[in-house]
Amino acid sequence: MSFANITKEQKQLVLGQLTAIKSDFASRGFFPGTSGNLSMRVGPYSQEEFYFAVTASGKDKSKSTPEDFLFVDRNGKPCESTSLKPSAETVIHNEIYRLTGCGAIFHIHSVYNSLVSEWFWERRAVPVKGVELIKGLNIWEEDAAIDIPILSNFADVPRIVPEIPERLNSRIPGILLRNHGIYAWGRDAFEAKRHLEAFEFLFEYVYRWELLRNRK
């Protein structure tokens, strides 16, 4: 299916959900400065062809305007005539969609996710064990133990992309960029939001636990 076959109603549904998520996350301080980005797939998916709406570059995400999002193809190129530029990190969204077939990807910056990504950098993963909110990632084992992958962070964003397939764990719906932030995804906006909230709880828990543990 080409982008021309995607209906106006399908596009509006995606934009409406992204606008609501953006407003919610902005109210929680998830987008300091103009940081962070959101995307959501529209229409059918195949590795060879898919389309998604993504946040436009440089926008104040505490405000809502008709130019907050644009639609791009699997290469991150705009699907419609526009003066907007997609987020510089759209290439990361492209790769996650390609590898996972997910329906939505949300990326935020927080103090806790940045701190734990640096603290556990040499390990290349944030270890979490036995915390209830692991279930928020669809992992239901008793006393579950997980490792949340950490990727290198480069100012030249395309340099990050080759590391994604190497570090991505199909069990964990998220990746951390070192000193940067979390990318969380899901089948739809609801699941991606739940995963992101679970990750953020786990990062704060791990940070606070490390402080307590190292006082002994």
TrEMBL record:
Domain of life: Bacteria
Keywords: Amino-acid biosynthesis, Lyase, Metal-binding, Methionine biosynthesis, Zinc
A GO cellular component entry from the record: cytoplasm
Enzyme Commission number(s): 4.2.1.109
Reaction equation(s) it catalyzes: 5-(methylsulfanyl)-D-ribulose 1-phosphate = 5-methylsulfanyl-2,3-dioxopentyl phosphate + H2O
Domain named Class II aldolase/adducin N-terminal: residues: 16-207
Pathway the protein contributes to: Amino-acid biosynthesis; L-methionine biosynthesis via salvage pathway; L-methionine from S-methyl-5-thio-alpha-D-ribose 1-phosphate: step 2/6
Enzyme's top EC category: lyase
Main function: Catalyzes the dehydration of methylthioribulose-1-phosphate (MTRu-1-P) into 2,3-diketo-5-methylthiopentyl-1-phosphate (DK-MTP-1-P).
Protein's recorded name: Methylthioribulose-1-phosphate dehydratase
Organism listed in the record: Cohnella luojiensis
Gene: mtnB
